[in-house]
Amino acid sequence: MVKRHHGIVRATHWLTALLLLGMIGSGLQIYGAFPHFGPRGATYPLPNPWDGSGFPEWARLGGWLAGGLNWHFALAWPFVLTGLVYLAYLIFSGEWRSLLFRARDIRPAWQMQRYYLGLNPEHPPQGKHNALQKLAYTSIVLIGALAVASGFAIYKPVQLAWLTAVFGGYELARYWHFLFVWLFVAFTLLHVALVFLVDPASLRAMVTGWYRGRFPSHD
Amino acid sequence: MTEWTHGLSRRDALRLGVAAGPSALLAACGWDGGHGLMPGLRLFSRVNDWVGERIFLGRLRPAPEYPVSARTKPQDFPAYSITYNQTGRFPGVARSDAWALDVGGLVRKPLRLTRATIEALPAVTYTVKHHCVEGWTAIATWTGVPVSTIAAMAEPTGEARYLRFDSFDSGYYNGWDLASAMHPQTILAYAWNDRPLMMNHGAPLRLYSPIKLGYKLTKYLTRMTFTRDRPGGYWEDQGYPWFAGV
């Protein structure tokens, strides 16, 4: 048994999962008030399978637009704070070294991908996390940061006009903000599937902190 | 500009068919948090109002102006009112000379302004983007008198901290912080896209500002009241964010 996850990592992980669920539910509630992208009279030709339709009741939080907004703007505080606590821990503990995807991880990531596709018979050697995991865990932090930034861009498009401009203006920022939802959802589905398919012991590690599985290295 | 008491033409009424905005506001389904959590959510909303007032309005940033060519087609610019939702007709005043704007509350010089008086004051015209709480935007040109001009005439006392705007639209009203109300782009508008304001957009006079969400922009104005205590608002009292600055 090795101690794998610090209490801060475990707490922020599960808190983020819960808060993200609330952010998405309330966000889908808000989306239903105007289920299009682009200004009035000109829907942008952007891929959106949900154009013109709201989301089912089970997927929404808040009951109506005002409720959705209140949930969204209340949960946003702990959501951002939890993310900052997690990042601060990674920086001060040095843990970022086993998580940050760098140029030297590109080749191992490719080998790992080949292994998952059945083209490499052997599981490539790895430390605490393999290169694909590093890519995933680095990307999700970036996506989280972009989700928050695009959220601010549509929250204060006049006062934070520079930020809104970074996302291509209010109407596009709204689209990117919506798109990040599906990246979060895709990440979560893949993340959970891989936990059970590849390394179920990692689930226990994220709950208790202790790991007794296939990849005990502790770099 | 004296045509604003006229009813809607058939063509205008057809154009209003696209004014679908309020249906989503009124939809009610799903879980809202219940009686236990709603007060907590409202508290967060007040925290966000406070942040909005203190941080985002610190420097009174003006909203960008757009060229006239960027205007949204008139028929694509939604308009609604509470009265219209309830009766299918926009509220109106029978005779243009029966209407006046009352300015009162914590002021040294209470005023009663006719539309002719207001139109005679130095006007501001700008083409700006409208942000609706629902998520849509639309661009139009608005003409009117800055609220700060009216305030200078009425001379609010040092106690005044908020402005309340009342209307003849089935009790619709809004409360504003003074800093937002005194923003140079916050105006009492009487023209839309170079035409006299029509009934669907709040004739004879409405509040307009590109620094707030649409529901803060009281249409069909009847009264401006300077207050010491924070006024609520039609939608704000039902849970919508109070500050609503963009």
Brief write-up:
Chain A is mainly alpha-helical. Chain A is built from 7 helices and 2 strands, in the order E-H-H-H-H-H-H-H-E. In chain B, strands 2-1-10-5-6 form a 5-stranded mixed beta sheet. In chain B, strands 3, 4, 7, 8 and 9 form a 5-stranded antiparallel beta sheet that branches.
Features:
heterodimer; A: about 220 residues; mainly alpha; Fumarate Reductase Cytochrome B subunit; two-stranded antiparallel ribbon; 7 helices; 2 strands; B: about 250 residues; alpha+beta; Sulfite Oxidase, Chain A, domain 2; five-stranded mixed sheet; five-stranded antiparallel sheet; 10 strands; about 25% helix; globular; disordered N terminus
Show the helix and strand layout.
The complex is a heterodimer of chains A (219) and B (246).
Chain A (H helix, E strand, L loop, with lengths): L1 E2 L3 H25 L33 H29 L12 H11 L14 H25 L5 H6 L3 H29 L2 H8 L1 E2 L8
Antiparallel strand pairs in A: 1-2
Chain B lengths: L9 H6 L5 H6 L7 H23 L25 H6 L13 E5 L5 E3 L1 H6 L3 E8 L5 E10 H8 L7 E6 L5 E5 H4 L5 E6 L2 E2 L9 E3 L12 E7 L19
Parallel strand pairs in B: 1-10
Antiparallel strand pairs in B: 1-2, 3-4, 4-7, 5-6, 5-10, 7-8, 7-9
Molecular structure report:
The complex is a heterodimer of chains A (219) and B (246). With 219 residues, chain A is mainly α. Helix content of chain A is 61%, strand content 2%. Chain A contains seven helices and two strands, in the order βαααααααβ. In chain A, strands 1-2 form a two-stranded antiparallel sheet. In chain A, helix 1 packs antiparallel against helix 2, helix 3 crosses helix 4 and helix 4 runs antiparallel to helix 6. The radius of gyration of chain A is 19 Å and the shape is globular. The mean pLDDT of chain A is 92. In chain B, strand 7 and strand 8 form a beta hairpin. With 246 residues, chain B is an alpha+beta fold. In chain B, the strands form two sheets. In chain B, strands 2-1-10-5-6 form a five-stranded mixed β-sheet. Chain B has a single domain, classed as Oxidoreductase, molybdopterin-binding domain (Sulfite Oxidase, Chain A, domain 2, Alpha-Beta Complex), CATH 3.90.420.10. Chains A and B meet through helix 1, helix 2 and helix 6 of A and helix 2, helix 3 and strand 4 of B.
